[in-house]
Amino acid sequence: MLFVGAMINASKSKVLSLARASTIISNINVSQQLHRLPLSPQPALYTAGLQRFSSASTQGQAAVSAPSEVLLTESCVKRLEEIMDKGEFLRIHVEGGGCSGFQYKFSVDSNRNEDDRVFEQGGVGIIVDQDSLEFVKGATVDFSQELIRATFLVLKNPQADHGCSCGSSFSVKL
């Protein structure tokens, strides 16, 4: 509540400073909930139920968070292991439509095009074409199973301004 009153009377630069400070505070709280992986010569990595997927061309390098990565939750990885045959991938494609302007499309695909980025680990993976990657880089893909449906969802998409209630449509940040 204090931040709201302070932001109304503050200049733009002070608002940005308050936003950065609240982000740092949020990150401190989040880091207390993360689990540290065992020590190794590589930089420390933290997990929160997410699997880091790196492009096949960079697998030999140390894993460093990059905005062009697509993260998968453990439930997504588990479901992909259950439904995918060898050589098949989950393709994520973004197209115009839906109630918010753009929508996510998921399909099983064994063909890789020249402009595709492949993110894989442990025999399962996803394919994202270069155009769609601009809309989903840094996002998290989840598998959700409820009484009325079971579906893959894109969560925490830093490229999206807001989404619709069903989770399949979004608008982009300008």
Automatic annotation (TrEMBL):
InterPro entries: ATAP (IPR016092), ATAP_core_dom (IPR000361), HesB-like_dom_sf (IPR035903). Keywords: Iron, Metal-binding, Mitochondrion. SUPFAM superfamilies: HesB-like domain. It is found in: Mitochondrion. GO terms for molecular function: 2 iron, 2 sulfur cluster binding; 4 iron, 4 sulfur cluster binding; iron ion binding. It holds the Pfam family Fe-S_biosyn. One of its GO terms (biological process) is iron-sulfur cluster assembly. Residues 71-167 form the Core domain. Belongs to the HesB/IscA family. Involved in the maturation of mitochondrial 4Fe-4S proteins functioning late in the iron-sulfur cluster assembly pathway. May be involved in the binding of an intermediate of Fe/S cluster assembly. This is Iron-sulfur cluster assembly 2 homolog, mitochondrial.
